[in-house]
Specification:
This protein is α/β, with parallel strands linked by helices. Among the domains are: 94 residues, Orthogonal Bundle (Arc Repressor Mutant, subunit A); 136 residues, Alpha-Beta Horseshoe (Leucine-rich repeat, LRR (right-handed beta-alpha superhelix)), CATH 3.80.10. The protein is built from eleven helices and 23 strands. The strands form three sheets. The protein has an 18-stranded mixed sheet, sandwiched between helices. Strand 6, helix 6 and strand 7 form a beta-alpha-beta unit. Helix 3 packs across helix 4. The chain is globular and about 80 Å long. The protein starts with a helix and ends with a strand. Keywords: Plant defense, Repeat. One of its GO terms (biological process) is innate immune response-activating signaling pathway.
Length: 506
């Protein structure tokens, strides 16, 4: 089996072989985050720019998916979103091979309860600490950290991580999920002047030192999952920063507009002014953006600034906006490369103004709130060619629909998961609509459905691959008998469906 897998490995281009070997830093069976992996590849210079203007991350994504296509790694999908690979795993046979090759080539040195792969000369280039065993003390005493380029530490091994002062040329320091609130210190972090990747996610820290501004080559900083109330102002001195991940409760300093290479920023909290939004407008390389806004101070000014900012961000493909207050995005036109859009708290008056199916050929995830939804809006959504996940909430009862919404033939050709919430009216699914739909969550106004549609027949039998259905009955004004009638009709429709999908009525 090793010989067979070796043939597949040898058939890889040299750059993919190197990227694959790097996966040996993770434990066997570990679920590896796609974005985390690609950012580390970039920090290690394992990804080379192929043409001017192309993002290193996009090249890394190509590497990642090519390894999947060649069967060297296994994709892990979101449970409810089948078209998006968030993570990957390495099959145990492939894992054994790359661990063997990593040791043979002195590519990665591993410490865990199974592997003790250390080079004979004890010169370590990449160090993976996976398990804190007593008999590792001897190894640690003889390890030289002078040439270590990359250190990835897992929670059970944080106690054997050498002091940061031991490292001289380190580029990657990944301590994700290691508890640093007690014990291990980040003292001398500012001395790691070659550091490109700093992963401190879920480490229990409560602050970052002002000295972090000295890490002039830092490309990725991830401090999510901690109780950090604010970032030091020196963060804006990190001129090469490409990815900044913080929590929505972590205040970012003014001056974010000084970054020149920023591609990912999430989640930025905007509370008391539009200065941060105006800074964002200068980040024209942004591909991923998440913002959490509080607009009580001046929502009209905020709305204008946000729309102006979004118009400038034409490379955005993942956008998440959460607003506490009042905001409309009717003046915005979604950019053509958008793949994922999630907007909560903003109620748009109409979808036709900013969703153009002819431009949005890549949009696969959409979660939005609207004041009302009309048949023409539904047809716009149904024309999005790549849409896999849809969540629409109609937010105002005064704009309720007075007629049935019809999902026509050939609409929503790729949709797998559909959620229709809020003050949605009666619906009907025609033959040929939503041919790939597996999960449906539907709010049903009992009285309106009886009065407008004359009953509770929605055409569920026209959804050929339906597997899971959730109905939320809006009982407002309906008697107990009418609610029971609705429940009986819905259960009967599910029983008659050829797939016999699971049913939950709320």
């Amino acid at each position: 089996m090793k010989r067979i897998l070796s043939l597949s490995y040898d058939d890889l281009p040299s750059h993919l072989r190197t990227c694959l070997l790097y996966l040996s830093v993770f434990p066997e069976g570990y679920e590896i985050g796609k974005d985390r992996l690609i950012r580390i590849w970039i920090a290690e210079d394992l990804i080379q720019c192929e043409k001017q203007g192309e993002s290193l991350f996009e090249i890394g994504e190509r590497y990642f998916y090519e390894l999947i296509d060649r069967g060297m790694i296994q994709p892990v999908y979101k449970r409810w979103y089948y078209d998006m690979t968030e993570n990957c795993r390495v099959h145990n046979m492939v894992f054994e091979l790359i661990c063997y090759l990593s040791c043979k080539q002195n590519f990665v040195s591993i410490l865990d309860h199974v592997h003790h792969t250390f080079p004979s000369k004890e010169i370590i280039q990449r160090l993976s600490l996976q398990n804190c065993m007593v008999d590792h003390a001897t190894h640690r005493a003889t390890m030289s950290m002078q040439e270590v380029r990359s250190v990835v530490v897992f929670p059970s091994a944080v106690n054997i991580l050498p002091a940061l002062a031991s490292f001289r040329v380190i580029r990657v320091l990944d301590l994700q999920s290691c508890c640093l609130s007690q014990g291990y210190s980040l003292k001398y972090l500012e001395n790691l002047v070659d550091l490109r990747y700093l992963g401190l996610r879920d480490t229990g820290i409560s602050q970052l030192s002002r000295e972090i501004g000295k890490l002039q080559f830092l490309q990725t900083l991830d401090v999510t999952g901690n109780e950090i109330s604010s970032l030091p102002s020196t963060v804006v001195e990190l001129k090469h920063l490409m990815c900044l991940r913080i929590d929505s409760w972590t205040r970012a300093p003014c001056g974010i507009g000084s970054f020149t290479s920023l591609e990912e920023l999430s989640t930025l909290c905007i509370q008391d002014s539009t200065d941060l939004i105006e800074d964002l407008g200068n980040q024209t390389e942004l591909r991923v953006l998440g913002i959490d806004c509080h607009t009580g101070w001046n929502f009209k000014r905020f709305e204008k600034s946000l729309v102006e900012c979004l118009h400038k961000l034409q490379k955005i493909h993942t956008l998440s906006i959460s607003v506490v207050g009042e905001c409309k995005l009717d003046a915005w036109v979604a950019p053509p490369h958008l793949r994922s859009l999630e907007i909560t708290g903003c109620c748009s008056s109409t979808l036709s103004a900013w969703l153009n199916p002819l431009l949005l050929q890549e949009l696969s995830f959409l979660s939005i709130e609207v004041r009302k939804i009309r048949q023409e809006d539904l047809e716009i959504l149904g024309s999005l060619p790549a849409l896999v996940y849809l969540d629409v909430e109609v937010g105002n009862q005064n704009h309720g629909i007075l007629r049935r919404l019809v999902f026509h033939d050939c609409s929503f050709p790729c949709l797998v998961h559909c959620v229709l919430r809020g003050y949605i009216g009666p619906v009907a699914f025609q033959q040929g609509a939503m041919v790939k739909l597996e999960r449906l969550h539907l709010a049903i106004p009992v009285l309106e459905t009886r009065e407008i549609a004359g009953g509770f027949e929605f055409g569920l039998g026209n959804l050929p691959v339906l597997q899971d259905v959730t109905f939320l009955l809006r009982r407002g004004g309906a008697g107990e008998g009418e609610v029971e009638e609705a429940e009986r009709a819905l259960r009967r429709a599910i029983e008659m469906h050829p797939n016999h999908p699971t049913l939950e009525i709320l």
